[in-house]
Design brief:
Chain lengths: ~80, ~725
């Protein structure tokens, strides 16, 4: 089932199926390794509820929920 | 000394650019290579730091240029554009690519892009010790063959592998490398574009690295299209086949291709001999970023940084202050007296110049201390966590999580706070933060509050004082929200940011960085501050032969300004002149009032003059005492600044202000002092940090309006309520 990365909970893993945004944010996400087919795991949500920490390519990336909203994923069970 | 002149003189020179991801240990590596020969400045026209150094190695002169740390060379961020412009336009002879050996795949993505430029690349496989400790085995020989570029393991923090690295760079500079192939489809498309270029725009092939240019045209890179005047259609025929085979989005396809190569290479050369266990970073983050503990830990850490910054520097500040006000002053007076200089030149030298030098110097310890701790926070990896924890709160007022630290430092002194904005990457976040910093009530405003609170609100000093700090914060939130929707409208900068592993920064690197910043402040900002200080002396002592402050230019300006302050409840020339001098530094408001109101009570109480030797002894002992106090302050539990200490000997002045202010107008006056324009040193810091007067201009305008309006509301509102 396709959903947005922002709706996932800590501990859940997902595969990227699309980046639904254009311009600098899209390129920045791709440069940081968020590419179609990449597997991401949600690690943490900041104490105030935003941003979130995501693990990919053996490193930790933080992004605001609004940015995570642009990443379409398929949750892995 | 430029590379070209040296070459003309037959000196063998090489330019080495140092590129790499943020957190790859690039700074430490540069510091280890260059040491104190490092020159820190800014890249032309922007606030991004540029480091450069000249080294000699055997019979070579090497020019080392540090590029901004970047993850990629895409055309969107300032750092990336600077790095790539330097590589393309200045064509260094060789690029040292600093790669974090514990995180090969993501680091190699940038390597792929560097290899596209046709400049020889040498990889510094840095943080190699940590990779080994993690049980990583990296086959550097295979890596070297696959990349077609030399790979040298380094541990920058311990200075290991640096000599080998420089030698590899020298050897590599002299022979071209073959870039990795992107597969038949892409290579054919590139050939197509190159052919078309050589027919239609041959001059571009001379101006740019040809393979890189062709790649950028395939990707339809906006910046390259703009510079060359070509359109995306130019590469169309060649791209058509790629599109059919790989989909519409060539930019994404290329990113996948580069990451694919990076991942493939990593799989080939990296063997993990141990199963990954929970590493230190993860264990620390479980506590530091914890739902409930995250914010308390963050606040505690900030409190420590704040206390350390100001407590470590205060004794030195006092020492500098005493040295310039005491011995330095006396020596100058004595020397000029010996020469038979007229009294006014002595006054200019002592009050204008020496006073000004002292004024510059007192900021140096605090800037050193601030830079040290900020660099430590960044180098250790905690800065990114601080931003992560605070971003939500700061974002609501249009700022970035990292803005919190400059704002907090602002409570100590706005000047280091302005410099601390350099931790922010986006120019917009930086500027907005800097513009709001002056609303944080700094230590220099405290003496003003102390005087008025002591005179008018002795029954509830804490509450009144606290209300002023809160007023400043509330105004910052308000102005932040307004600016976010007006002047700083547009897309908020991204927060897509790495949370790097925790690491202990090397002391050498910390010290070099701190020293460079402090030196820079002293030379650049110091000159301005000195000039302003001399100017103020003239304002106070001109026209020739003025006896009282009222008749000086300053006093006249005060008289002219007073009517504008009438609706606020303090429309006297005394108050206006004090506010004017407060522009130099806000605590001077009190000093000026003291001079004006209590001029007759001033008795000079000169004791016997100390001898030169006694002065020297005093200086040395004072410094030792300052060092001891700084140490003691670090360990002692420190209380909140006590009002008592500041209050001594103010009874006369308190009487004087009681006769011209009411409690209501006193409060309006304090609010005005809190909010009105930033002091001169903050103005100069803003100019120095941003390279333009623009942001100071904005702060000056909005703060003046804000201060006037708030004081008006307080005074007139209070009167309407019958206070």
């Amino acid at each position: 089932m396709k959903q947005r990365l922002s709706s996932l909970r800590p501990g859940e893993a997902a595969r990227v199926v699309g980046i639904r945004v254009a311009g600098p944010m899209r390129r920045r996400l791709m440069d940081m390794g968020v590419l179609v087919g990449e597997v991401l795991q949600i690690k943490k949500v900041a104490p105030l509820g935003d941003p979130i920490e995501v693990r990919l390519k053996n490193y930790s990336l933080s992004l605001r929920k609004k940015e995570a909203q642009a990443i379409e994923v398929e949750v892995l069970s | 000394m430029s590379v070209e002149t040296l070459r003309k003189e037959g000196v063998k020179t090489l330019t080495i650019a140092v590129a790499g991801n943020p957190n790859s240990g690039k700074s430490t590596l540069i510091n280890a290579l260059a040491g104190t020969r490092l020159q820190v400045g800014n890249w032309p026209g922007v606030t991004v730091e540029k480091k450069e150094a000249w080294l000699s190695h055997e019979d070579w002169q090497l020019r080392l240029v540090d590029l901004p740390g970047t993850y990629s060379l895409s055309p969107y961020s300032q750092e990336e554009l600077i790095a790539r412009d330097f590589l393309i336009k200045e064509r260094p002879d060789v690029v040292i690519d600093v790669v974090d050996a514990t995180n090969l795949e993501r680091n190699l993505y940038l390597t792929m892009q560097l290899l596209e430029l046709g400049i020889p690349v040498v990889l510094a496989l840095n943080i190699y010790d940590e990779a080994q400790a993690k049980g990583y085995q990296i086959d550097t020989k295979a890596m070297q063959e696959m990349l077609g570029a030399p790979v040298v393991p380094t541990v920058a923090t311990k200075g290991q592998g640096l000599k080998e690295l420089l030698e590899a760079a020298l050897r590599a500079a002299l022979k071209p490398q073959r870039p990795p192939s992107y597969g038949q489809d892409v290579e054919e498309a590139l050939e197509g574009v190159l052919k078309k270029l050589s027919q239609e725009r041959p001059e571009l092939l001379a101006a740019y690295p040809s393979r890189w240019l062709a790649l950028k045209l395939l990707e339809a890179d906006g910046e390259v299209l703009r510079e060359t005047g070509l359109t995306a259609d130019f590469a169309h025929p060649a791209v058509e086949h790629l599109r059919q085979a790989h989909g519409e989005d060539i930019e994404a396809f290329m990113a996948e291709l580069r990451y694919g190569l990076a991942a493939g290479l990593t799989r080939e050369v990296l063997r993990k001999t141990r199963a990954a266990k929970t590493d230190l970073t993860e264990r620390i983050d479980r506590i530091v970023l914890n739902r409930f503990l995250g914010i308390p830990i963050f606040l505690a850490a900030m409190w420590v940084v704040f206390k350390l910054t100001f407590d470590v520097s205060t004794p030195f500040v006092d020492w500098v202050d005493a040295a310039t006000a005491g011995p330095l002053r006396r020596w100058t007076e004595a020397f000029l007296g010996l020469l038979g200089a007229p009294a006014w030149t002595v006054s200019l030298a002592v009050d204008g110049v020496i006073g000004g030098v002292g004024f510059v110097l007192v900021f140096v310890p605090v800037i050193f201390a601030m830079m040290f701790f900020i660099t430590f926070l960044e180098g250790s990896g905690y800065m990114a966590r601080a931003a992560f924890v605070m971003d939500r709160a700061m974002h609501s007022m249009g700022l970035h999580g990292k803005s919190f630290i400059p704002m907090l430092l602002g409570f100590g002194c706005n000047v280091p706070a302005i410099y601390a904005t350099r931790t922010l990457e986006s120019p917009r976040d930086k500027a907005l933060t800097a513009v709001l910093v002056p609303l944080m009530s700094c230590g220099a405003r405290l003496p003003v509050y102390v005087l008025f609170v002591g005179a008018f609100f002795p029954q509830s000093p804490g509450t009144v004082l606290w209300s002023l700090y809160v007023l400043g914060i509330a105004m910052a939130v308000l102005v932040g929200v307004v600016f976010k929707r007006t002047l700083f409208r547009g897309q908020a900068p991204l927060f897509i940011m790495e949370l790097p592993p925790y690491r202990m920064p090397s002391m050498r690197s910390l010290l070099i960085h701190t020293w460079e910043k402090g030196k820079h402040f002293l030379l650049k900002a110091g000159t301005y501050i000195l000039a302003v200080s001399v100017l103020v002396w003239f304002m106070l002592n001109m026209p020739w032969g003025v006896q009282s402050t009222k008749d000086s230019y300053l006093g006249k300006m005060g008289q002219a300004l007073a009517p504008a302050l009438k609706p606020l409840g303090f429309g006297t020339w005394e108050a206006a002149s004090s506010l004017l001098t407060g522009i130099i530094a806000k605590e001077i408001v009190v000093g000026t009032m003291g001079e004006i109101y209590a001029a007759q009570a001033q008795e000079s109480e000169e004791g016997p003059r100390p001898t030169f030797l006694e002065d020297l002894k005093e200086l040395a002992l004072g410094f030792a005492q300052a060092a001891r106090d700084a140490g003691a302050n670090v360990v002692s539990t420190v209380g909140i600044a006590s009002l008592q200490a500041e209050e001594e000997g103010q009874e006369g002045l308190r009487e004087a202000v009681r006769s011209t202010f009411s409690p209501l107008s006193a409060y309006a006056f304090m609010a005005f002092v809190l909010l009105y324009m930033p002091c001169v040193v903050v103005a100069i810091a803003m100019r120095h940090e941003f390279g333009t007067w623009k942001w100071f201009g904005l702060a000056f305008l909005y703060q003046t309006v804000l201060a006037w309006s708030v004081a008006l509301i307080i005074y007139q509102g209070g009167r309407a309520l019958g206070l």
